[in-house]
Task: structure prediction
Amino acid sequence: MRKIRTGDEIIVIAGKDKDKLGKVVRVVKNDRIVVENINLVKRHTRPNPMQNIAGGIIDKEMPIHISNVALVNPTTNKADRVGFKYLEDGTKVRYFKSTDEVITE
Result:
């Protein structure tokens, strides 16, 4: 079970995009994530008529290290740490450490 998953609302806490909010698009390997409209780079692409690709300069989202982001707590709208605990029925859930509330998927 991962602390940050696809679809989570995060805030960047370090790097060139510090203090920006975004949603996790996908998890790359174990320590990197792709966030929408975060860590954009310019990609020069060559036109390819066989694959219907127009050439030019496009913006592309690159992976960012998981240590540079934090989950956003919706009650406080601030970055928060995540922990794991087991409920009474034995299911393992993520929770916010500051407010001790369970993260809903």
About this structure: The longest strand covers residues 21-28. The chain has a mean pLDDT of 93.
